[in-house]
Amino acid sequence: MPRRDRSLTTLLAPWLGALACWALALWPRLRDLDATMALADTVGPFLTAADPGRGPHAPPFGWGLYLPYWLALRSGSLTSALGFIAALQALTAPLGFLAVRVLRPRAWGAAIAVGALLALDRGLLDTTLSGAEGYLAATWLAATTLGVAGRDRAWGPWLAAGAWAMAVLNHPFALAAAPLLLLLPLRRASLGALALAGAMLAPRVLAALSGPMPEAEGDPLAAPAAWLAQGGAGSIAILLGAAVGLVRHETRKLALASIASAGLMLLLGVHLGYLRDHHLRLLSAPALVGLAALPGARGALALALLRPPPSWLPQPGHPHRPGTLGLERQLADRLDALPGPVQVDGAWLSGTPAAEPAALLLDLHLRGHPLGSDTLAVVVSAERGRWQDLPLPGRELPGEVLDRGDRHLLVVLDAADRDAWTPALCERGARIGGAVEGMGALAPDAVVRPWECGE
Question: What pTM was estimated for this model as a whole?
Answer without folding.
Answer: 0.94
